[in-house]
Amino acid sequence: MSHFGGMRLQSAVGRLENIIARNRNPSGRRDRYALGLLGVVLVVVVGMLIFTGLALPPGTPDPATAEPAKPDDSVRGIKLYRPPQQKP
Questions:
Q1: Strands 74-75 and 7-9
Q2: Helix, strand, or coil (residue 86)
Q3: What is the pLDDT of residues 42-54, one digit of tens each?
Q4: Is the pTM value of this prediction over 0.85?
């Protein structure tokens, strides 16, 4: 360790006792792997819910095979104004 203005500075590597303790108890790595694996599973499940019909209740028709809506001049039962067409 070096001294700077009365303050002790630790090296970037760390003290030897801390390094030995980390090597004897490497449980931190397993925790990070478990958390990462849980995150990957969560992303896959959410992706399947979004891009497939798994989020729909049973008996609901598949939106990809449903009939397209027919064009209508109304929105929620309110008739829309269309200007009259001019004759050429």
A1: unpaired
A2: coil
A3: 999 999 988 887 7
A4: no
